[in-house]
Design brief:
mainly beta; seven-stranded mixed sheet; 1 helix; 11 strands; 47% strand
Length: 129
């Protein structure tokens, strides 16, 4: 089992940057696939990015490609989401998620929230225009 705690959210102007962190507990961090999702008020949870560090594959939602970067530090049990050129439509609660998946992991698999068994509480990101 793994527990996840996000940090780094806040209020930023359009065009600004934020770096989110997600610290994971436990000694088996390297066995988990890590992802970021977001949820705006009244909207469904949306996939943002995921990293399968074992294969080196990284996937992003089209709306954040070229602006967001997911990375992880296995030595520190932490996954990051660097968000640049933020837009008002990026405003949401950002949630870190962990999945215990094996095999060939496609973008379709990693983008489905139902495939992640562990979630953090979320951190609010607000982008003003």
């Amino acid at each position: 089992q793994v527990q996840l705690v996000e940090s780094g959210g806040g209020l930023v102007q359009s065009g600004g940057s934020l770096r989110l962190s997600c610290a994971a507990s436990g000694r088996t961090f390297t066995t988990y696939i890590m992802g970021w999702f977001r949820q705006a008020p009244g909207k469904e949870r949306q996939f943002v990015a995921a990293n399968d560090w074992r294969s080196g594959n990284t996937y992003y939602h089209d709306s954040v490609k070229g602006r967001f970067t997911i990375s992880r530090d296995n030595a520190k049990n932490t996954v990051f989401l660097q968000m640049d050129n933020l837009k008002p439509e990026d405003t949401a609660v950002y949630l870190c998620a962990a999945a215990h998946l094996v095999g060939v992991l496609t973008a379709d698999i990693l983008s489905r929230a139902a495939n992640y068994g562990y979630w953090g509480q979320g951190t609010q990101v607000t982008v003003s225009s």
